[in-house]
Design goal:
With about 200 residues, this protein is α+β, with helices and mostly antiparallel strands. The chain contains three helices and ten strands, in the order αβββββαββββαβ. The strands form two sheets. A seven-stranded antiparallel β-sheet has the order 3-4-5-9-8-7-6, with helices on both faces. Strands 1-2-10 form a three-stranded antiparallel β-sheet. Strand 1 and strand 2 form a beta hairpin. The longest helix has 21 residues, at about 175-195. The termini are far apart. The mean pLDDT is about 80.
Length: about 200
């Protein structure tokens, strides 16, 4: 019995000492999938009848918006810019000043950015926009687990008012979408800086 215990003990020591010939590694930290981003390239959106034109990424698709909360959009110039590989969409709405009061349109843009997202956003920053084409507006950056982290409006304050918001078709998680959000934010700024009224 004594020798059996000694043999088992020696076998255990042998396995422990010589059983592992590789270095010990600590478990990997949790992370997210690596995303391969396309090269930045743009094309012009200049459709007949639309009161605006701009440049948008070649890796996105423009689709006419046909519904607004189960009703028809106010006018035929509302579009969506889809980024299928990122499950993202920029909703672009356009309103004519005159048919709509300028102050109401600006107030609505601020409310849509602040009122609807304050309970989820950890911070909301707005910054004034002046484009190379002398178009003015406001850009809203929302931090936290919000449905949208980027919203903007552009206007000439007399005739045209265009609003855009970037949404992801995923559960809001600032950490997991931040790298894609940063990538698409550059595309939003390109759209903004190339926008012209017709």
């Amino acid at each position: 019995m004594k020798y059996l215990f000694l043999k088992i003990f020696l076998l255990f020591c042998f396995v422990v000492l010589f059983g592992c010939n590789s270095d010990y590694t600590v478990g990997k930290k949790r992370g997210y999938f690596k995303i391969d981003f396309p090269e930045k390239a743009y094309q012009e959106f200049d459709q007949p009848g639309y009161p605006y034109t701009f440049e948008y990424p070649v890796y996105s698709n423009i689709i006419k918006d046909t519904s607004f909360f189960e009703s028809k959009p106010e006018n035929p110039w509302w579009i969506n810019i889809d980024f299928p590989q990122f499950l993202a969409r920029v909703h672009v709405s356009y309103k004519e000043i005159g048919k709509n009061k300028f102050d109401s349109l600006v107030n609505d843009a601020f409310q849509l950015s602040y009122k609807q997202h304050t309970y989820k956003a950890s911070a909301i920053e707005d910054s004034e926009i002046v484009t190379p084409n002398h178009i003015h507006g406001m850009y809203f950056t929302l931090a936290g687990n919000t449905a949208t982290a980027n919203q903007f409006f552009l206007t000439d304050s007399t005739k045209h008012f265009l609003r855009g918001a970037l949404y992801f078709s995923a559960t809001p998680n600032e950490d997991s979408i931040s790298i894609v959000n940063d990538f698409l934010k550059k595309d939003l700024f390109h759209l903004i800086n190339t926008l012209r009224w017709k």
